[in-house]
Recover the amino acids of this structure.
């Protein structure tokens, strides 16, 4: 293995560490140095070299004792909406400037040192990653701590809300990172940055410690440079959390990395996806989507056919309704979830106020950014007396119709494929004061979110201005393994996922 | 239907936000633009469609998980109040509450 | 007077109740922090109770079981599927900025509560059996407390109580007077403690009532109601409602309309006043809580709980009527508490006649307990001893008056180590105090003869047909026996001797 340490993926690092060919401290130091060097990307909100190295040393001692854990010693980083004991957690908001959680999110603990009877995968935490404030945004330009930038073109957004996670992985600052996805916040930034990300089935990963944006949609998931690496992280993250999250599913955790290389039953090595039916929704291939993205997505589908998959046309007629439905349901839940930020028990409190009411208003007015306040306002409105039925209830009914469209489609196919976003990454500031046009760009990721389905973004080439394009794969509920297998087989046949942005030269010295 | 400035100000009160007039007017414009696309929903016939509150309903009966009635949480007041804006004698301080 | 004419200055009073019953669970409804009362501020508020970022609720099975117990006890429908909702409002003692409650689909639907309503005094005391229909009972979490003693112009917030499980029990507006309101509240209080879902401690706020009060002319539609919050003593409850009723009638009489409001009762001034914090029209923006899937209660769970319920007060009262031939009212009073009922049944089991035991417990025993401010479980006289005493009254060994003296003596001595010993004290005390009635006919006849000889005048009058004269003679005999003779027996012996 000659490539520089930062080039190594999770699987390679885990193996090298287990074989003691490299130490966790070495890797951690190398990556910390890179994080420093590329601070201008704005990918990280918090780095604590000492804390990271402490964990790395502990991992090296365990490795020296011959202990084994799937990710023992592998450095990763966490989106800043996942709470951590050893790093501040701000959710990209001024409201939580300097906030320290007294506990680790369940997924953070399971990837790291474990807890609640879970052994922990042994990963080392490098730091916390930038994101749109409270995960509300699709460009990471709505972080109170400045934008994260796209490594492929620093004048562009990395996507959002998990923009810091995607940018850090694409820039080779970390081999993998956690993200969260409510309406596309893992898939879209992964697509914009040319990396791989998966949003699991709703409830697959515990939401305990995930600062809630929209509770019925939020899901944590991994972003990495390959489907295999995503599988390694997801295996550690997934599984029930009965004592902490009432919406976590009972299905036990799986080893998603197992069998990735194998061909489907009855398929040949040459055509490993023989028998896989991929649904192609006509609604995802109309003029809403720009030509460069369509071309890359179609080419990727052709590759899947070469791998033995068959394409079947499916209909998702309510696709367009996902936008109003999502932008009612998510803000409604957010307006309630964010009420706890009142300046009483933690977080920002205004300096001056005449009485309690003013204390609340100033605290929240100062602590929340414009998009968050806008969504709180929308949510407050659609839940308020006299409007609930017309908006919230209607949206939840349409949500079921959208989900039923998927269930029907999956009677005819095993996976659904299409674009992740209608365009490649836009310029920072381009949609700054036009929230609605930003909302419309979520058209392809919102439907699967509303239906609670697992979805992936897989690098599928490049579009306008040499910017990455992602292929979205959507599976039936709990079909993460099927998604990861198909994506891995695609990545064995293509090298899009190995391409590194020129802005971050990957020579050992860089 | 479209919102008025009074609506926006009422909602802001309800949500404990304090926009100045300029900001409220700015929001008013954006909210109305947003609700323009929302109105599309109203055309859809959803008679008899059960609202979907929990996606898990789609692949199996969802039932609330119940835990045993045991106390496991120790007193961690000092740790929990470390990040509190104002505390005294273990109490969180707020501007006088009037009943 | 009949209950239907419970009118105040020609107005009918209409009251509905909302009672918050604190459920006796160890841990909170959605967290694993303790619910114990009186801990130092915020030492029992865990990350979930404080609504720290990222925390989520997980439901306590025991709280659900309490709701099922209550539903069964009032003959209600237990919803196989009920839904938790968020009630959104800002208040410093509400950490999440919303309260998790049940709104559209509560866990308990319907049911009813019956009780005797009594009014008037002494001879013209009247009683009426009343039934109040319940609308629903739902599970929800309690809020914390705002401490108003001054922290240099600030209030202090203690969140220990935040997340304590509550069952909110809502009635139809079936109550027609403050007296009936108190009777209902007492009956409900009895029931929730009886079935063990609440400790009933009103000082600690375990049983808090809100009364929705309105008045109207009979036959008219319901008037506008005002809600009196946090009535946590039966005494204040009656005062508060009486004041509120008078106030509302006064408003109407002076041509002012009643405006819907939430008010508090101030025991010092004896008045109610509107709460300022509730002034801005509330818009709670209820919606199903996405953090909590529907609460599903399987039929067999309900049936399992049913088998663990004790005999309920109503059923026990009916049994007392059938088994012991007691009047309805005796049965109702004897089933005020499990301890009272147990004392009665133990007394009867030890051989006492049911009605005699009932009378003694409701009159003699009750009076002494009240005077000493004791619960019946602390009664110094054990049922076995009372049974022996009542036996002596029944077989004529002692008079009722004498029995009281014995009872007082037993009470003063307090319970003996061994029950048999105290029971044995009954006869010892009768002996020692010389309270035995004179049943030696020979001796009595001699005295009767002496009295006849010594009172010719009365004898003549009696023989002349003056019944009254006999009473004088009876009195003489009783006097001569220092009251130990049995008056009936003396009466008979005299008549016989006078050839009556």
């Amino acid at each position: 293995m000659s490539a520089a340490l930062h080039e190594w993926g999770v699987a390679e690092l885990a193996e090298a560490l287990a074989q003691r060919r490299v130490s966790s401290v070495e890797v951690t130091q190398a990556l910390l140095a890179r994080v420093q060097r590329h601070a201008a990307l704005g990918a990280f909100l918090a780095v604590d070299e000492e804390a990271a190295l402490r964990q790395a040393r502990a991992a090296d001692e365990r490795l020296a004792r011959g202990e084994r854990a799937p990710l023992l010693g592998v450095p990763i980083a966490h989106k800043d909406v996942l709470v951590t004991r050893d790093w501040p957690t701000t959710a990209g908001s001024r409201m939580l400037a300097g906030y320290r959680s007294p506990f680790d999110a369940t997924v953070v603990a399971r990837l790291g040192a474990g807890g609640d009877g879970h052994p922990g995968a042994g990963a080392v935490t490098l730091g916390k990653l930038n994101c749109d404030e409270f995960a509300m945004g699709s460009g990471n330009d709505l972080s109170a701590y400045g934008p994260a930038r796209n490594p492929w073109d620093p004048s562009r957004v990395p996507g959002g809300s998990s923009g810091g996670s995607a940018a850090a992985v694409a820039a080779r600052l970390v081999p993998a990172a956690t993200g969260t996805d409510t309406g596309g916040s893992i898939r879209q930034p992964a697509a914009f940055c040319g990396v791989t990300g998966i949003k699991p089935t709703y409830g697959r990963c515990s939401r305990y410690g995930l600062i809630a944006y929209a509770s019925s949609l939020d899901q944590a998931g991994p972003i990495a440079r390959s489907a295999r690496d995503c599988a390694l992280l997801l295996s550690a993250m997934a599984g029930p959390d009965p004592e902490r999250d009432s919406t976590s599913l009972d299905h036990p955790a799986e080893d998603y990395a197992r069998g990735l290389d194998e061909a489907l039953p009855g398929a040949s090595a040459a055509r490993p996806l023989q028998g896989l039916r991929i649904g192609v929704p006509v609604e995802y291939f109309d003029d809403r989507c720009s030509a460069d993205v369509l071309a890359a997505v179609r080419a990727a589908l052709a590759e899947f056919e070469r791998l033995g998959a068959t394409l079947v046309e499916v209909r998702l007629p309510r696709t367009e309704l996902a936008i109003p439905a999502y932008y009612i349901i998510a803000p409604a839940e957010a307006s309630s979830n964010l009420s706890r930020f009142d300046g009483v028990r933690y977080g920002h409190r205004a300096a001056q106020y005449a009485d309690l009411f003013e204390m609340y208003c100033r605290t929240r007015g100062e602590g929340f950014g414009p998009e968050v306040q806008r969504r709180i306002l929308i949510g407050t409105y659609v839940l308020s007396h006299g409007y609930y039925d017309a908006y919230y209830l209607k949206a939840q009914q349409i949500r079921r119709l959208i989900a039923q469209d998927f269930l029907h489609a999956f009677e005819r196919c095993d996976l659904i494929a299409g674009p992740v976003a209608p365009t490649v990454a836009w310029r920072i500031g381009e949609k700054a004061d036009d929230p609605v046009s930003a909302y419309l760009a979520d058209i392809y990721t919102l439907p699967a979110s509303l239906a609670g389905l697992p979805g992936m973004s897989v690098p599928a080439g490049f579009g306008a201005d040499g910017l990455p394009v992602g292929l979205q794969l959507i599976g039936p509920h709990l079909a993460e393994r099927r998604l990861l297998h198909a994506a891995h087989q695609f990545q064995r046949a293509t090298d899009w996922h190995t391409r590194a942005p020129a802005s971050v030269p990957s020579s050992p010295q860089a | 239907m479209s919102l008025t400035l009074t609506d926006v100000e009422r909602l802001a009160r309800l949500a404990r936000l304090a926009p100045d007039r300029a900001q409220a007017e700015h929001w008013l414009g954006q909210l109305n633009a947003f609700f323009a696309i929302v109105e599309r929903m109203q055309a859809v016939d959803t008679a008899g469609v059960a609202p979907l509150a929990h996606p898990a309903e789609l692949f199996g009966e969802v039932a609330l998980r119940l835990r045993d009635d045991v106390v496991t949480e120790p007193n961690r007041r000092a740790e929990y109040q470390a990040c509190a804006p104002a505390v005294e004698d273990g109490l969180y301080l707020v501007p006088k509450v009037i009943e | 007077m009949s209950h239907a004419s419970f009118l105040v200055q020609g107005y009918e009073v209409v009251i509905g109740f909302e009672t918050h019953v604190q459920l006796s669970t160890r841990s909170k409804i959605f967290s694993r922090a303790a619910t114990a009362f009186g801990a130092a501020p915020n030492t029992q508020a865990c990350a979930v109770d404080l609504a720290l970022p990222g925390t989520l609720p997980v439901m306590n099975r025991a709280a659900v079981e309490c709701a099922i117990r209550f539903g069964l006890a009032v003959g209600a429908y237990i919803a196989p599927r009920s839904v938790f909702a968020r009630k959104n409002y800002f208040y410093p003692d509400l950490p999440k900025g919303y309260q998790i409650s049940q709104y559209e689909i509560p866990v308990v639907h319907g049911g009813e509560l019956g009780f005797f309503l009594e009014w008037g005094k002494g001879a013209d005391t009247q009683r009426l059996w009343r039934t109040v229909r319940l609308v629903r009972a739902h599970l929800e979490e309690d809020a914390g407390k705002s401490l108003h003693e001054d922290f240099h112009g600030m209030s202090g917030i203690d969140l220990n109580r935040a997340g304590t499980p509550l069952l909110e029990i809502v009635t139809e507006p079936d109550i027609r007077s403050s007296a009936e309101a108190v009777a209902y509240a007492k009956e409900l209080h009895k029931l929730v403690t009886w079935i063990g879902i609440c400790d009933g401690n009103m000082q600690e706020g375990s049983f808090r009532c809100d009364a929705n009060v309105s008045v109207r002319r009979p036959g008219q539609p319901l008037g506008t109601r005002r809600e009196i919050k946090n009535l946590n003593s039966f005494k204040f409850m009656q005062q508060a409602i009486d004041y509120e009723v008078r106030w509302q009638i006064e408003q109407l009489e002076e041509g002012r309309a009643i405006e819907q409001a939430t008010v508090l009762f101030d025991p010092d001034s004896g008045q109610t006043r509107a709460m300022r914090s509730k002034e801005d029209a509330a818009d709670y923006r209820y919606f199903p809580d996405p953090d909590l899937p529907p609460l599903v209660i399987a039929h067999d769970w309900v049936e399992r709980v049913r088998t663990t319920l004790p005999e309920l007060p109503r059923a026990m009262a009916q049994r007392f009527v059938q088994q012991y031939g007691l009047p309805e009212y005796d049965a109702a009073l004897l089933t005020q508490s499990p301890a009272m009922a147990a004392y009665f049944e133990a007394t009867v089991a030890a051989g006492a006649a049911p009605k005699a035991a009932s009378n003694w417990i409701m009159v003699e025993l009750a009076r002494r307990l009240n005077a000493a401010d004791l619960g019946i479980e602390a009664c110094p006289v054990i049922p076995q001893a009372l049974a022996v005493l009542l036996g002596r009254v029944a077989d004529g060994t002692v008079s009722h008056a004498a029995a009281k003296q014995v009872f007082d003596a037993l009470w003063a001595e307090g319970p003996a180590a061994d029950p048999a010993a105290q029971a044995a004290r009954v006869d010892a005390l009768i002996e020692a105090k010389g309270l035995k009635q004179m049943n030696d006919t020979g001796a009595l006849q001699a005295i009767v003869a002496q009295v006849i000889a010594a009172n010719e005048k009365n004898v003549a009058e009696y023989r002349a047909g003056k019944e009254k004269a006999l009473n004088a003679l009876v009195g003489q005999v009783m006097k001569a026996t220092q009251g130990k003779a049995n008056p009936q027996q003396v009466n008979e012996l005299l008549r016989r001797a006078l050839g009556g």
